[in-house]
Amino acid sequence: MNRVLEICANSVQSAVAAQAGGAHRIELCQNLEQGGITPSYGLIRQVRALLTIPVFVLIRPRPGNFVYDAAELAIMQADIQLCQELGCAGVVLGVLDAEDYVDVACCRELVALAHPLQVTFHRAFDSCANQQQALEAIIGMGCQRLLTSGGQPSATAGITQLAALVEQAAGRISIMPGAGITPETLPALVRGTSALEFHSSAKRLLPTVPGALPELNTPLLETDDALVARMVKVLEESS
């Protein structure tokens, strides 16, 4: 039983480190400090040129909630088409309505547009009050996997719900725990959820530049290949 580690990479350097550490796939984004948004054309193209592992791209036009207007949905559609043109393996998306239910109509349209790319429904799911209902909706629209913390701030805190979601999914979709996963927390999540895929940023904080203006010297996060390698080893030993 082979388990998969997906790394959330927010730069060329992070993407390369993820592959060097043995990650099986990346989710590429930018602005990870605010939860991630769609990366630029240049970043996607460069990462595709450098990596041999599958590249999934976050389709999120802005930080904040997951309720999008027509103009934002048009941006998402254009970004999905760009990912197809650049040969990405998949996209990561999610749309909710004003009551925090899955916006099935909008999502179906985006999933259909993305075909034949794989689609991961992201942690917008964790804002849904009725996760059992939301999971059935996501399965019905044809997504291949669901990234979730079980509705909690971290996957570790949501381990009971994650296990319930894996059981409910019954192989119809891959439930991929994510949020705060480290080499230390991963073993318990493997044992406690029976999930086959896991998501982590494996990040470290880069040092700031001495003497730079504070407003121009914000902390940066970058994937650490050694952390990736440790998590890959955990999954290999559990298989």
From TrEMBL:
Domain of life of the source: Bacteria
GO MF terms, alphabetically ordered: copper ion binding
Keywords, comma-separated and alphabetical: Cytoplasm
Places the protein is found: Cytoplasm
Gene it is expressed from: cutC
InterPro entries for the chain: CutC-like, CutC-like_dom_sf
Cited Gene3D superfamilies: Copper homeostasis (CutC) domain
Similarity remark: Belongs to the CutC family.
Pfam families in the record: CutC
Major location (coarse): cytoplasm
A Gene Ontology cellular-component term: cytoplasm
Presence of keyword Cytoplasm: yes
Name the UniProt record assigns to this protein: PF03932 family protein CutC
